[in-house]
Amino acid sequence: GRIACANVLSDLYAMGVTECDNVLMLLSVSQRMSDEGLGTWGWGLGKGAGLTNMGGVYGHGGGVWGHGGRPGACPTLTPAPPRPDSAVPGDVLVLTKPLGTHMAVTAHQWLDMPERWNKIKLVVTREEVELAYQEAVASMATLNRTGEG
């Protein structure tokens, strides 16, 4: 839940939005997910509310739809939020989070796939993969608000 919420808010901050009053997320789950898995997933998702409060955003309600196509709608703002399309050569790029989280998560998944783990175990240890994974999760669950504006 914290990662999903941080992703939404961080995308807004990256676009130059400095204040967000309300977050409502609509998520989808596989129809094949077990009741136990769904309960665990829902519990973890609910923990995202703490992050919305940290970001000064009121998080509430929401919905979960089963797997499959559904119609969607998106509210629009007037005036529209700023677009990040005015960069020019020489501009300073501020990284508010480390790069490589996807690679760390993938390597962690490969720990349980011998055919894939064998491809990378010569250059990285299990301990290094576990540490990189924990750091990636912590990064993904953290707001990048310090880079706004």
Keywords:
149 residues, mainly alpha, 60s Ribosomal Protein L30, Chain: A, 2 domains, two-stranded parallel sheet, 6 helices, 4 strands, flat
In short:
By secondary structure, the protein is mainly alpha-helical.
Explain what you see.
Helices cover 43% and strands 8% of the residues. It folds into 2 domains: 1-83, 2-Layer Sandwich (60s Ribosomal Protein L30, Chain: A), CATH 3.30.1330.10; 87-149, no CATH class. The protein has 149 residues and is mainly α. The chain has a two-stranded parallel sheet with strand order 1-3.
Write the layout of secondary structure elements.
Blueprint: H1 2-14, E1 22-23, E2 26-29, H2 35-46, H3 48-54, E3 58-59, E4 63-66, H4 101-110, H5 114-120, H6 126-140
Parallel strand pairs: 1-3, 2-4
CATH architecture of the largest domain: 2-Layer Sandwich
CATH superfamily of the largest domain: PurM-like, N-terminal domain
Q: Main beta sheet: strand number and arrangement?
A: 2 strands, parallel
Number of distinct beta strands: 4
Question: How does the helix and strand content classify structurally?
Answer: mainly alpha
